[in-house]
């Protein structure tokens, strides 16, 4: 059941518990955000499906218990989950990679992940923040490199290392085009949350305070990117669900070349306010 304006907003740990123990409460019908890009996540955390003429790309998988929701969304769109060729993980937090192993095993897809977050899967599993929920180990087939775009069929994804939220947070810029040949860039920041760069959190998890500097520097680095359609890993960060119309395949409400810079500027402001309050 969706929260009303009078209900208390759930904290991230409460959201994670809800998503793992009562996933049906966050179930969401899929919708299109760009000519070949679809939202297949839930009401709290996102997953993005990219259709290419050589198969499907999945950006983030949500959590293990929500796997059936992701597959149901893919099938509702008329695609077969077994056609997923690539899984692109934005960063090493459980709500974004919890279902990587079952999806990779089911599809045989190649898994990409930031090298800097690989330690989350080995020596620092505490930083995954699984809260004890199922999270299978998985192998990383490829690491990202800013100078090495990922191409499948007619779609190219440019990745940009954007550390801060985690050491390996990776943003993605999808080159897309419609049936008439008009091109679009769909931009996705790889991890914008501020909780993991708060001083108390960094001290508690024994991570360097330099991640704060990395976070804001990454924002400035990304601010000038040309983006036609801005999307978010957590849809609330960009008010995405409010933009979805009756026709869930109409992506035009998401077309706004000014949204990306405004989004980044707002995060810079929030970061500066957080630092000033510490």
Short note summarizing the structure:
Helices cover 26% and strands 20% of the residues.
Description:
With about 280 residues, the chain is an alpha/beta fold. It has helices at about 10-20, 65-75, 95, 100-105, 200-205, 210-225, 260-275; strands at about 30-35, 35-40, 50, 55-60, 85-90, 110-115, 140-145, 150, 155-160, 170-175, 185-190, 230. It has one domain: Ribonuclease Z/Hydroxyacylglutathione hydrolase-like (Metallo-beta-lactamase, Chain A). It has seven helices and twelve strands. A seven-stranded mixed β-sheet has the order 1-2-3-4-5-6-7. A five-stranded mixed β-sheet has the order 8-9-10-11-12. Helix 6 packs antiparallel against helix 7 (about 260-275). The chain is globular, with a radius of gyration of 18 Å.
Write a concise keyword list for the protein shown above.
278 residues, alpha/beta, Metallo-beta-lactamase, Chain A, 7-stranded mixed β-sheet, 5-stranded mixed β-sheet, 7 helices, 12 strands
Radius of gyration, in Å, reads 18 Å
CATH superfamily: Ribonuclease Z/Hydroxyacylglutathione hydrolase-like
The shape is globular
**Percentage beta strand:** 15-25%
Helix-residue proportion: 25-40%
Write the layout of secondary structure elements.
Elements lengths: L11 H10 L9 E4 L2 E3 L8 E5 L2 E5 L7 H10 L7 E5 L5 H4 L2 H8 L2 E4 L28 E2 L6 E3 L2 E7 L8 E8 L5 E6 L10 H6 L5 H14 L5 E3 L27 H19 L1
Parallel strand pairs: 4-5, 5-6, 6-7, 11-12
Antiparallel strand pairs: 1-2, 2-3, 3-4, 8-9, 9-10, 10-11
Helix pairs in contact: 6-7
């Amino acid at each position: 059941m969706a929260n009303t304006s009078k209900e208390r907003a759930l904290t991230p740990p409460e959201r994670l518990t809800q998503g793992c123990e009562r996933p049906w409460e966050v179930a969401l019908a899929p919708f299109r955000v760009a000519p070949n890009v679809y939202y297949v996540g839930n009401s709290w955390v996102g997953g993005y499906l990219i259709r290419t003429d050589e198969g499907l790309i999945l950006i983030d998988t949500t959590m293990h218990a929500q796997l059936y929701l992701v597959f149901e969304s893919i099938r509702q769109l008329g695609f077969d989950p077994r056609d997923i060729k690539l899984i692109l993980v934005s960063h090493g937090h459980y709500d974004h990679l919890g279902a990587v192993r079952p999806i990779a095993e089911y599809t045989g897809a190649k898994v990409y992940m930031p090298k800097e977050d690989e330690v989350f899967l080995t020596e620092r599993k505490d930083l995954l923040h699984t809260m004890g929920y199922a999270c299978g180990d998985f192998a990383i087939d490829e690491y990202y490199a800013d100078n090495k775009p990922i191409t499948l069929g007619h779609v190219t994804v440019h990745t940009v290392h954007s550390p801060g939220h985690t050491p390996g947070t990776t943003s993605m810029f999808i080159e897309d085009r419609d049936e008439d040949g008009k091109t679009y860039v769909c931009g996705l920041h790889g991890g914008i949350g501020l909780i993991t760069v708060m001083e108390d959190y960094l001290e508690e998890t024994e991570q360097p305070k330099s991640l704060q500097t990395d976070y804001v520097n990454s924002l400035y680095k990304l601010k000038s990117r040309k983006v036609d359609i801005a999307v978010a890993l957590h849809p609330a960060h960009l008010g995405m669900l409010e933009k979805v119309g009756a026709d869930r395949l109409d992506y035009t409400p998401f077309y706004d070349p000014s949204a990306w810079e405004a989004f980044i500027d707002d995060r810079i402001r929030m970061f500066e306010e957080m630092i000033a309050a510490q």
